[in-house]
Amino acid sequence: MKISNFREALRHIPAIHVLIQDPSMEAFAALMGRNTVLTSLRRGTEQLKASILSDPEYYRNHKIETSEDLFDHLMDLVLSLLEKQRLFALQPVINATGVVLHTNLGRAPLSQETLKQVMEVSTGYSNLEYDLDFGKRGSRYDHMEELLCRLTGAEAAMVVNNNAGAVFLCLNTFAKDKEVIVSRGEQVEIGGSFRVPEIIKESGCILKEVGTTNKTKCSDYEEAITENTSILLKVHTSNYKIIGFTSSVSLAEISIPEDRADILCMEDLGSGCLTDLSLFDLPREKTPMDSLKEGADLVTFSGDKLLGGAQAGIILGKRSLVEKIKKNHLARILRCDKMTIAALHSVLQIYDASEDPVSQIPSLTMLCEKIEVLEAKAKRLRQRVEEAGIESAALELLDVEEEAGGGSLPGVVLQGKAVALVSQTISPDDLRNRLRRSLNPIVCRISEDRVLFHVRTIREEEFDIIATELKKCWEAKP
Ligand SMILES: *Cc1c(COP(=O)(O)O)cnc(C)c1O
């Protein structure tokens, strides 16, 4: 029907119940729920009405000549509203970067087994803070303590929201208004928001730097000790390596005056690897067990780096110290919730019970994957993409270098395999952007004008989605 003035435009705005039947709306309803789509339809309709009322030339300026044009125009408006909402919502993403512990993409993925435990604990009630034995109030810290102690040999353990929180809490409990000695070579920054000097300051402590960037000796620590010293802190240089003319010392080598038993040795390990990765041709990472053996009084690490669990910060140490940390009022602010506890508990149980934890913890499986397995996987992905209708000339199998990511295994290069794609019609940047913004977002890298799909971090069940999304981009006009 023809539209020849703004009143007609207003009158022909379609009703919500008609709009919702459009196939594109159905796709969004499946993804985001019918109510979200209805809300966007109402909002879009209101916006269009307001625009037409405030500007009688609006329909002409937007080349709306018929009621069909008006329908399409409104649909575009609603789609962009939905698109915006979707982009800000937390949603699954396909990680084709090959970086296993990608902090921006959620670090360690969890197994179905682990998720089952999270479901069981969180769809109903749980004994989160309830002692089933005595029928009285219990502590959320109890659930994992025994397991953590058994796995690491620590006297006591505690789990908080993340490792930054764990470091903060330890410093704040024992070194408020006192000095914390750290080597200049260990002033680490992780992902912009965790900086050792800042965390020391924010926890109310005084930073005392010793040594130089490349060399710190025992005597540097020993000479820096004053009566106001409270903690000697070692920080794992998680995301960089100092090479060349270097030296650093372990906590075991530093001698603390005999009358200063109050000075604590603390190590922020970052990754918290609980298994020997050298069995899989990776360098052996220092473990929490190593730190404790060296004499650390307190050790902290993340739950979702090389441990492969949920976001959490784990504190290990002497019983008397951990009890004191639990009593710090700030612990309440940093406590983790039942879903985290359930997830982490499940992963720790795998370490405890399994002969081969690497095969049951997804992030470790990916990190330790053999090159032959990756090659076969890449071939299957290439074949799947070809079957979807992408010409084989555009596809290549590449050897690629990867990293563990997330502040783990610094300097370690992993050999991987990728499927590379070159399009004659779409630029690599354009293709990458489209894949990232698609209904099933895919995050990939570009190298030498090719879009790469690193198979290490792609799950087999994601191959079909990749093939379908690629096909859509392939056929779309540039
Ligand atoms: C990653 C890391 C942190 C921060 O851990 P989150 O769990 O991300 O808070 C702190 N220290 C070191 C050495 C790290 O590697």
TrEMBL record:
Chief site of localization: cytoplasm
Subcellular location: Cytoplasm
GO BP terms: conversion of seryl-tRNAsec to selenocys-tRNAsec; selenocysteine incorporation
Enzyme Commission number(s): 2.9.1.1
UniProt keyword terms in alphabetical order: Coiled coil, Cytoplasm, Protein biosynthesis, Pyridoxal phosphate, Selenium, Transferase
Metabolic or biological pathway, per its Swiss-Prot or TrEMBL entry: Aminoacyl-tRNA biosynthesis; selenocysteinyl-tRNA(Sec) biosynthesis; selenocysteinyl-tRNA(Sec) from L-seryl-tRNA(Sec) (bacterial route): step 1/1
A Pfam family of this chain: SelA
Example GO molecular function: L-seryl-tRNA(Sec) selenium transferase activity
Cellular-component GO terms for this entry: cytoplasm
Catalytic activity: L-seryl-tRNA(Sec) + selenophosphate + H(+) = L-selenocysteinyl-tRNA(Sec) + phosphate
Record flagged with keyword Phosphoprotein: no
Residues with the N6-(pyridoxal phosphate)lysine modification: 305
Its job: Converts seryl-tRNA(Sec) to selenocysteinyl-tRNA(Sec) required for selenoprotein biosynthesis.
PANTHER family, sorted: L-SERYL-TRNA(SEC) SELENIUM TRANSFERASE (PTHR32328:SF0)
Listed name of the protein: L-seryl-tRNA(Sec) selenium transferase
Organism encoding this protein: Alkalibacter rhizosphaerae
